[in-house]
Amino acid sequence: MTLPNVLVIEDGFEYINRSKQWMSDHFMFRRAGSGIEALTLLRSHNFDVVYLDMNFHRTPEKELLGDLESIRSRFGGDQRRALEFLSVHQGAYILSAIRDADYSIPVLFSYDFESESRRWEQLVAKYGALDWVGDNAGPDQVKEALSSLIGQ
Amino acid sequence: MLRAVLNIILLFLGTAIFSVAEAQDELIEASLSSSEVEWYRAGGVALDEGRFEEAQMYFWRVFLTNPDHSQNLFFLGDSYLRGGELDRALEWFSKCVHLYEPCGLSLGDVQLQQENWLDAVVTFARLRTERRNTPSPTILLGLARAQLGANDLQGAFDTASRLHIVASQSDDLTDTFISQTHRFYLDLTERRLAQVIKPDPWGQVTASEQLVLQESITSLRDWSVGEPQDEATALMINLLLRLEVEASARLGLGGNAEPLDPQERELLRQVESLVSDGQLGIASEKAEVLIDVAPRSAEAWGAWASLNETANNLVQAERGYRMSVSLEPQNSRWALGLASVLRNGYGGRRDSEAIEILSPLVTVHSSSVVHRDYARLLQGLGRYDEALSAWREYVRHWPNGSGVNLARIQVTALSRRLEQTNEVDVEDPESPVVEFGEPQWSYQLSLAYLARGRLAEALEWAEIAVELEPEWVAPLNHLAELLVTEKPRRAQEMLQRSLDLVNTQERVSLRIAEIHKTLGEYDLAFEQLAVLAERLPEHNLTLSLLLEDQGRRNEAVVALELYQSVYVGPRFREEALAQATRIQPFDSTSSKAWFFLVFASSILLLGGVIRLRWRRFGGVDIEGLLAKHPRSYSEVAAVLSAMRHEVIKHNTTVLPVVADSLERGELGGALDAQGWLLNIGVNEHDGTGVLALWDRYVTELEQISLRVGVRLNIKWNDPVLSPMCRGFEKLNIYAKILHKPTKTTPNVLRGIHKVINVDGYRELGNLLRRISIFELDAKVVRESWARVCREPTFDGMFSPRLTVVAPKKPFPVRIIKDDLVDILTNLLRNALGPVGFGEMSPVRVELVMESDPITFISTAAIRIMDRREGTFNVEMIRGRSIERGLGLVYDRVVRAGGSISVEQVSGWNKAVVVRLVVVESVDNISVVPRIESKT
């Protein structure tokens, strides 16, 4: 039986390492280190679900997705703070880019939306097929959430 | 004749041994005509064969010709009775009640069946009177049952006592009759107890309770003797045991090997009476006599101890109680007395000994009083976490205990002190009284059986108690003790369950270690003691002794040194000295060295105590720090956020799956975890293991607080972080042995997971959400405006106008009020300026919620618009245009994670827009990653 393919998008290697260590019996994992790399992989491979980090502060500036100019304007022209904003919320920008590229693949956010129900509702309304796990989720919870999104 | 009467009585009891027809043979000839005899016999046959209507017809014919024939009347009534027509039966039995005893018995029986108690009392009382002073057991049983039904409990008890005497003199009682009698005794005893005894079996004893209790015990002891040992008898014995247990607790009735005889008991009563009258001298003389005649009576020694305690002769009081304890170790009364003497007589110096006395009782012979005193002692010694556990146990398992309200108060107070979540419902002291339930009884019964040497029953009841209340540690510990010889593994399992429920049980930890030792599992015993010593450092000595015993001298020395350096209390001092003499070389001939050692130890000890107390109880928690220095918020929040993201995420979150894999016998996950926990063989954290990373963040928080002159006490005095610190300390211990896990390791890891990943993570998030939130509304804008207008530059010179547009509902934003006021004040001052001669620019402030169209992050925009003449742009703000009083604005905004810009607005010269984060997420707090690691 072919295992479901999961595209892990993160700026480091923690997700991919832990996932392969604890969930390789259930899924096949492949990693993208940035939004651009993720879009490239999505074009060339079939994935069943995306497992997406939110904070990409280790990703090079040039690879960050998002309208830097407008964010810089919001920060009164402060380039450094605009970049910080983009990297800290990069997961949302990557999600937006995936949907803009017409991929309706379900996405599991690794981010604690527990106290942001209004924001979460808006994200789901705009981007659809989403779920999230908090920072304290262990492999079992992640496995369950991924399976649920795939519809297993 | 007699045979027939007996047969009829037995019929009443439902166990006829002769047929009705046979019984009549001897009766009929004397008083019936030949035709009547025929009808009478035919009626008897029909009755025997169950043709009741036919029987009634024959007996009716006899009645028509011989209406006073009592036997015929009886059988007529009986034929209706057997046919189920009780009212008609009653009618016929009533006609012969004065003539024939079986009629009376049957009448009474029907009345009992109909629960017509008062009429039944009259019927049986009349039968007894007719029998003069020799009533049959059947009559007495009927009367007693009727009295019980009529709620005349004392009358029923008196009749039952008479019944017992009469029945014991009778040789021809059937087993059925005896069973019925025993069932009645059981009902009677339970009804009397229910009426008199209060639900709290451990409370104060009234005279009436004492009387009923003692009467019931005496009666049940008498009644339950003999054959048959059927269900009713077994139930009665069961009840007797329960009462004896209760009496042991309430009245101090020993029930052990050598109880007092009646004369000795009378002497005891005199002693107690004299003590209560204050005649201690005479009481003492009599008590000495009592001890002489009953030297193996725990009660006698207890009386001796009690009077000496009253006379403040503590040495003799202690001696007396110690004798009682040795004679009757299962009776908590003596241990409580001894603990009381040690506690009250020595100004706290012997409190630790008192705890040692009560500790075994709490572990396996628990009762509310023991628990209460134990908790008090622990609390008095500052062992708050253990005291809290003990009080919680009290509230949970003795909800009717006389001190439960006090216990609830203590739980609340200690929870606050320890800043722990209160697991017990302490908000409702008026909660309904709960009956002393089956788990408690089962447990107490098991103890009672054990005290009587009946191990099988003790085991059975202990198993039941554990099954009924699996989360009560006392039965678990008790069951473990019962199992330990035959089934040490199961005993260990019970103890581990108990320890998982209440992890402060020192004796249970020690017992587990002992069992490991007995089974030759020395490494596991060492591990158990090492974990215990983390919490109670005095057990480094216990560990040292065991290590030395196993020939591991060097490690024993290390453990002893740990005891000497970490532990500052009085426990095991003599043993430690002896151990030191054995394993630490020292020139004992040098008196100077001894003097120096003692002196240095004293100084170190004193310093240690002060340092420990300072460390543990001084300082503030995170919220205390922010209350004293709010502007530390952003730094503190950043570290807290990093704790969540960089320590927990991907790291401690895998502990449950590591535990699962260990249980499957797979070591890979554990070794990997060991690697990243301790930074062995991995390089994910730039040379920093997760445990060290946690310590680093704790240190960082402490440094932030020290910079602003506040002492933060995260490790001991912070409701959120202290438990997590404990969790990480425990993880530190277990991380080092993950490569050689024990059977308990998986559960320990799961426990740590709960503390750190579940409770800690949640509380940390709550803390981040709680701190430094301000409700932004028009009011703060107007306050800042008023402040500007009062400034000398503007005061009285102009009449500036302010318009504020804001929604009714304020926006919760992440900023401290002082910073916001600084920002507003400076920007409003900047907005004020001349627009013509003698005129000031009007100012308009709009508060608007905005949402990012990609991330949907909400911000509160404060738009400050004016028509002041001149140029102003954001570079001037970022360039800290001091002359305009804007020096702090940019810093304040950035510190709050917000932004500031200058925008063009139609109809106004400019709008300065400050955007602040609307509080929804803890993750928006730290926009600057704290440590170059991950996420």
What's the Cα radius of gyration of chain B?
Answer: 42 Å
Oligomerization status of the protein chains: heterodimer
The end-to-end span of chain B amounts to 104 Å
Please state roughly what percent of the residues of chain A sit in beta strands, choosing from under 5%, 5-15%, 15-25%, 25-35%, 35-45% or over 45%.
15-25%
* Major sheet characteristics of chain A: 5 strands, parallel
* Global structural class of chain A: alpha/beta
Q: Report the structural category of chain B.
A: mainly alpha
Poorly predicted ranges of chain A = none
Report the major sheet of chain B: 5 strands, mixed
- The succession of helices and strands of chain A, N to C, reads EHEHEHHHEHEH
Number of distinct beta strands of chain A? 5
List keywords for this structure.
heterodimer, A: 152 residues, alpha/beta, 5-stranded parallel beta sheet, 7 helices, 5 strands, 47% helix, B: mainly alpha, 5-stranded mixed beta sheet, two-stranded antiparallel sheet, 65% helix, disordered C terminus
